Automatic annotation (TrEMBL), chain A:
This is Proteasome assembly chaperone 1. One of its GO terms (biological process) is proteasome core complex assembly. InterPro entries: Proteasome_assmbl_chp_1. One of its GO terms (molecular function) is proteasome binding. Keywords: Chaperone. The keyword Chaperone applies. It comes from Plectus sambesii. Belongs to the PSMG1 family. Pfam families: PAC1 (PF16094). GO terms for cellular component: endoplasmic reticulum.
UniProtKB/TrEMBL annotation, chain B:
It comes from the Eukaryota. It holds the Pfam family PAC2. Signal peptide: none annotated. This is Proteasome assembly chaperone 2. The lineage of its organism: Eukaryota, Metazoa, Ecdysozoa, Nematoda, Chromadorea. Chaperone protein which promotes assembly of the 20S proteasome as part of a heterodimer with PSMG1. GO terms for cellular component: cytosol; nucleus. Keywords: Chaperone. InterPro entries: Proteasome_assmbl_chaperone_2, Proteasome_assmbl_chp_2_euk, PSMG2_sf. Forms a heterodimer with PSMG1. GO terms for biological process: proteasome assembly. Belongs to the PSMG2 family.
Length: 253, 243
């Protein structure tokens, strides 16, 4: 309706809590479907480490740090409306029992758990022994006391002694939370009593995110248990980061 | 549904004497704030992260109730209990996945009936601004509407001024409870299944002091089922530091 009407309009009332006037009696259709492409990928006999990289910073780091891997499949979140683009989680594996999942573009939260269920069950004969999830957030979103470090971790109850050095890393402080795919992954691991750690890199939000510096923060992950066994050396990683982003020479020592 | 079969088995002997308290995702987060006060003040322990987590938007963080240094996780749906196992308290931190709402409601109702829970308390809220004028002018106590299911009178003998019919949110119905989330659907379903249920629905608006609304709700609940001494203050959880 356009133009002045001088009459009140009945508008829906909004709430920060969520959709507080939602219909619980009618089943709503899902707007996206989640599938594996190709449908029956070859499974690893066992998986010593599942590494999930979420967002551009984590994916940038992993592309610079990973050893040789083979593409296995994609998990595809596709809209039922054909015009909308699909979201993809790229799955790679190595012969040493390491599974890698790269999620560059944020998957709709409503489908995150479904994606994680497929990730945990479709590519290995048995659940991964350990899961490491890398993600990032702008420091302006850090709540409570200021972040003391540019990384923080959160772990599942069963993470304990599986991860050496985890106790020396800053723990995420209340009331900060993690959502989306990383949260779905940690929740799945907690519910299934699996060993998992989420590492968050806090980056300065300057309008153009400091992609390489934020990516480099993730190198602290090599201190966690045997994660370093699956990554190139720190100097090789720096060299690769430079090749990936030649526009940022001032960040390379 | 709220618990795995192993956790259910450990509670099955206690369930017929248990009071289940859960929040509705509703205006001002009042139900969730009220449950935070209960968990923080009543020395409840976490017994499970619920399988229902897969039906809500994912959310994790450090514990909302334990001081820094603890490695206990918070997830979107958690279940707490007291040592005597007379209370089962659910906290839900995030909204439902839109295409899983009906599944959650159906599963929750079937679970409550299957476990033979003695009585259910729902803590909720609704938009004050869409109520009848009589509610706009009511006292602070009357701003928390009380709904008792048909089977609820015997289970909650000290509740007065209660209503027995909840009307779902409709623009044209002056008795509707807009902003109350799952409240009406859950109440109607449990009423049909003869489950003893009390719903406390606080009339309020977003942006006002919803912590005070939550305190009003738990104070009224305490009058009904005596959770703590009246003169003991409700303890705010550490996750409220920014409020």
């Amino acid at each position: 309706m356009s133009g002045p009407t001088f009459f009140g309009e009945v508008l829906p009332l909004n709430s920060r809590a969520g959709d507080v006037d939602a219909d619980f009696e009618t089943e709503e259709p899902a707007n996206f479907s989640v599938s594996v492409d190709p449908e029956m990928p070859k499974k690893l006999d066992s998986c010593k480490l599942l590494l999930l990289a979420h967002g551009e910073h984590a994916c940038c780091y992993i592309k610079a740090a990973k050893m040789e891997t083979n593409h296995v499949a994609d998990i595809v979140v596709a809209s039922t409306f054909e015009s909308a683009g699909a979201y993809r989680l790229v799955i790679e594996s190595s012969s040493s029992g390491y599974l890698l999942a790269l999620c560059q573009r944020e998957i709709p939260s409503e489908y995150a758990y479904e994606v994680i269920e497929l990730l945990m069950t479709s590519f290995t004969a048995s659940p991964p022994e350990k899961c490491l999830i890398l993600c990032s957030k702008a420091t302006v979103l850090h709540r409570g006391e200021a972040a003391k470090s540019n990384i923080s971790i959160l772990s599942s109850t069963n993470a304990g002694s599986d991860w050496s050095s985890v106790t020396s890393m800053p723990y995420l402080t209340t009331p900060n939370t993690i959502d989306g795919l990383p949260a779905a992954a940690l929740t799945f691991c907690e519910l299934h009593k699996m060993s998992a750690v989420v590492m968050t890199s806090w980056y300065q939000s300057t309008g153009h995110s400091d992609l390489v510096q934020a990516a480099r923060s993730f190198d602290a992950a090599r201190k966690l248990s045997t994660v370093g066994d699956y990554l190139l050396t720190s100097s090789a990683v720096s060299e690769n980061l430079a090749k990936l982003h030649p526009k940022n020479p001032q960040y390379f020592a | 549904m709220l618990l795995t079969s192993d956790d259910e088995a450990s509670l099955s002997n206690y369930a017929p004497n248990m009071t289940l308290i859960l929040p509705a995702i509703s205006v001002g987060n009042v139900g969730q704030l009220a449950v935070d006060l209960l968990i923080s003040s009543l020395d409840l322990e976490l017994i499970a992260h619920s399988p229902a987590n897969k039906l809500t938007l994912p959310l994790v963080g450090p514990s909302a109730y334990i001081q820094p240094g603890s490695k206990q996780l918070s997830t979107a749906v958690e279940v707490y209990s007291n040592k005597e196992k007379t209370l089962l308290v659910v906290q839900q931190r995030s909204d439902f996945i839109s295409h899983a709402r009906k599944e959650f409601l159906d599963s929750l109702v079937e679970w409550i009936v299957k476990m033979k829970i003695k009585r259910v308390v729902l803590l909720s809220s609704a938009f004050l601004s869409s109520q009848l004028d009589s509610f706009l002018q009511c006292s602070e106590v009357e701003k928390t509407r009380r709904f008792l299911s048909k089977a609820g009178s015997a289970a909650f003998p000290s509740v007065d001024n209660f209503e027995q019919q909840m009307v779902s949110s409709r623009f044209d119905d002056p008795k509707s409870l807009r902003g109350a989330g799952i409240s009406t659907s859950l109440f109607q379903r449990l009423d049909e299944r003869n489950v003893a249920m009390l719903a406390l629905v606080r009339l309020c608006n977003e942006g006002e002091d919803n912590v005070a609304d939550a305190v009003a709700v738990v104070n009224l609940l305490n009058d009904v089922i005596s959770l703590k001494p009246v003169d003991k203050e409700w303890k705010r959880p550490i996750s409220w530091m920014d409020l």
